[in-house]
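notes to self, project folder thing:

trying the whole complex as one job this time. last attempt i did each chain seperately and stitching them together was a nightmare. two parts in total, labels are on each line so i dont mix them up again. if this works i'll redo the older ones the same way
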Amino acid sequence: ELKVEQNPLFLSMQEGKNYTIYCNYSTTSDRLYWYRQDPGKSLESLFVLLSNGAVKQEGRLMASLDTKARLSTLHITAAVHDLSATYFCAATTSGTYKYIFGTGTRLKVLA
Amino acid sequence: ETGVTQSPTHLIKTRGQQVTLRCSSQSGHNTVSWYQQALGQGPQFIFQYYREEENGRGNFPPRFSGLQFPNYSSELNVNALELDDSALYLCASSGRVGGARFDGTQYFGPGTRLTVL
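result (full assembly):
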């Protein structure tokens, strides 16, 4: 059974600093997704990673995938307050499009 | 292009009652997935519908049931409501649109907040 874990669960960081969120999954998965959720809101798609070594970047966020290590990372560069949100990764069981979500990382960027 | 919409936004029910939640998929999408998100948790997969057929189910009891209609909109029905059913229910649609490559990305609606008293 596919399981997805994220760490840290909570992250409080200063503006301008860099940090990385980690997403580990337990069995083979052919796709890895990152979403952002603001309080009381729905999920916004950030990235989809489809192959080993895939790297995607948008603004201050960069996501990567290592399928051999079963690990995806979301790197935050020079954090700003607007990045404060909860970030989820989700993996899919091979051959399906059923998302298994991680526990989420609640990010708070302090001015 | 219209995004995913859900109704109602909020709902309050009592234990034992039944509820129906509705979802309209994004234009061109033929797949709808439903998730339950308890407070402070990640979304949990309930089930998925593809072209009006159930296409996978998570670890939810049979009192959670669904439908997909020919226009690909969908309903989630929950019978015999329990206190633990209180959560945000999210609908997501996906599908290949035109000649674009399909990467499986699901687009989420705003959710229905269900409170069971």
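what i see at first glance: The two ends of chain B are 37 Å apart (CA to CA).
need to look closer tmrw
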